[in-house]
Design goal:
- The chain is α/β, with parallel strands linked by helices.
- It has 2 domains: about 10-35 and about 295-430, Aspartate Aminotransferase, domain 1 (Alpha-Beta Complex), CATH 3.90.1150.10; about 35-290, Aspartate Aminotransferase, domain 2 (3-Layer(aba) Sandwich).
- The chain contains 15 helices and 14 strands.
- It has helices at about 15-20, 35-50, 55-70, 80-90, 110-115, 135-140, 160-170, 180-185, 240-250, 260-265, 285-315, 350-360, 375-380, 390-395, 410-430; strands at about 75, 100, 120-125, 145-150, 190, 200, 205, 210-215, 230-235, 320-325, 330, 330-335, 340-345, 400.
- The radius of gyration is 23 Å and the shape is globular.
- The protein binds pyridoxal-5'-phosphate.
């Protein structure tokens, strides 16, 4: 180690790492959930209530999400994955159909398309950002396209108005295979909004800009129910969102016409099974966590996340090697889910060394995402080639996500930056 007192690799720049090493600083995790006494009390109350599966709290959370997002109906389920798969199946998507999806996403987005038997048609990112390239989406549309699933990577919503206009342009060649598809008359726009709960377009909270938005309430997300997810429904007439909500709720509970709560009412034991459905309802224990999150999401969670991201931007903005993430573009604003930093001059090995060195200094970093052609199944069984997705591969190679979570303190944000800057400068200068 150099003995210089300033500059990359100097003793001063390595003080945070040394303090961490000697147990004087606590580790900084990547995204722990915000669990406090309010959450614990709410969960305890449900446990004592005598009703722990889907019931009044789940329905209350759905109402709250409708008022917050402006969606016509909301259905809460046990994950984004099951919720969105249910929606694809509701639209009758299956073998012979195509669904357009970006390669720059978590595997869940594409896995569920494969579950239905449909063919995922993959598109690259924009040259300068992580969202899907709308021109690539436009050229991927064929007569077989039954849905388009853009992904709001890191919480930044895609331009849904643009995507919706592409779907409308596809009307003349759209071949409907059932009454739902005839009613819509075009590809379904189903948003992978797993990261973007609370994002805005034109000042309006995301949730009503696509036909269906799928949100994730997984433990690492901005808004969590431990595991969970929601579909917000905004299907145009003649589709009836209330009827669709009911069909989806039944399909998510074995095809059973009466849920556990209504069956539990005196004399109401009888039910029917109208289809061989799935089992993916949200429990009231999870919904109770969501209701606490909802109470403070707009006033506490989002402003804090924004403040953390703004501070990172302020501290990193002057670094010539830092390609900062975009949180606002035109009328679109992120939910500040991820701080996706890119480092000019870095390749994958350098990025991985940064993550290792930061971990040694007690700072957890992460990578979003490994583009699908990097993953064995998608490479070997689906035949995706990295060379067909140059933008995604280039972004991935030098991306690193910094911690963002409600309880992250200002001093810790500074410590993250100090550890990252020190390590990046050392790596770039060949030390
Ligand atoms: C972009 C994206 N889509 C979908 C999912 C799946 O969400 P869930 O875990 O709620 O099924 C994730 C989860 O991390 C994700 O990052």
């Amino acid at each position: 180690m150099t003995t210089e007192t300033t500059g990359p690799g100097s003793i001063r720049s390595r003080i945070p790492a040394l303090y961490y090493f000697h147990g004087l600083m606590k580790p900084i995790p990547f995204s722990p959930p915000r669990i406090d006494q309010k959450t614990i009390d709410a969960v305890t109350e449900v446990l004592r209530s005598g009703w722990i599966t889907t019931g009044p709290r789940t329905r209350a959370l759905e109402e709250r999400i409708c008022s917050y997002t402006g969606a016509r109906r909301t259905l809460c389920l046990n994950s984004w994955t099951n919720a969105v798969e249910l929606a694809l199946r509701w639209y009758g998507i299956g073998p012979g159909d195509e669904v357009i999806v970006p390669v720059y996403t978590y595997a869940a987005s594409a896995n569920i398309i494969l579950h239905t038997g449909a063919t995922p048609v993959f598109v690259d990112c924009e040259p300068n950002g992580f969202l899907c390239d709308v021109h690539a989406v436009a050229s991927a549309i064929t007569q077989r396209t039954k849905a388009i699933m853009p992904v709001d990577v890191g919480g930044m919503p895609v331009d849904y108005a643009h995507i919706m206009s592409l779907a409308r342009l596809a009307r003349p060649s759209f071949v409907a295979a059932n009454d739902r598809q005839s009613a819509l008359g075009r590809p379904l726009i189903i948003a992978d909004a797993a990261h973007s709960f609370g994002a805005r377009i034109g000042g309006e909270v995301l949730g009503s800009q696509a036909d269906i938005c799928g949100f994730s309430f997984h433990a690492v997300k901005n808004f969590t129910t431990a595991e969970g997810g929601a579909l917000t429904l905004n299907l145009p007439e003649p589709l009836d969102n209330h009827a669709v909500w009911k069909q989806l709720a039944i399909a998510g509970l074995h095809g059973q016409t009466r849920d556990a709560l209504s069956k539990s009412q005196a004399g109401q034991w009888e039910y029917d099974i109208v289809e061989p459905g799935y089992k993916c309802n949200l429990t009231d224990i999870q919904a109770a966590i969501g209701l606490v999150e909802m109470d403070r999401y707009e006033e506490e969670t989002l402003p804090r996340r924004k403040a953390i991201c703004d501070r990172y931007t302020q501290l990193l903005g002057a670094r010539s090697w830092a390609i900062l993430p975009t949180f606002q573009e035109g009328s679109r604003e992120s939910s500040y889910h991820l701080y996706m930093l890119r480092i000019n001059g870095f390749n994958e090995d350098m990025r991985n060394r940064l993550i290792k060195e930061a971990a040694e200094a007690g700072v957890s970093l992460n990578v979003h995402f490994q583009p699908l052609p990097r993953l064995t199944y998608y490479r070997e069984s689906i035949g995706l080639l990295e060379s067909d997705f140059p933008n995604a591969m280039a972004h991935f190679a030098h991306e690193v996500s910094l911690p963002v979570y409600y309880d992250l303190q200002d001093a810790e944000v500074e410590r993250v930056v100090s550890v990252v800057v020190d390590s990046v400068q050392r790596i770039l200068s060949g030390h």
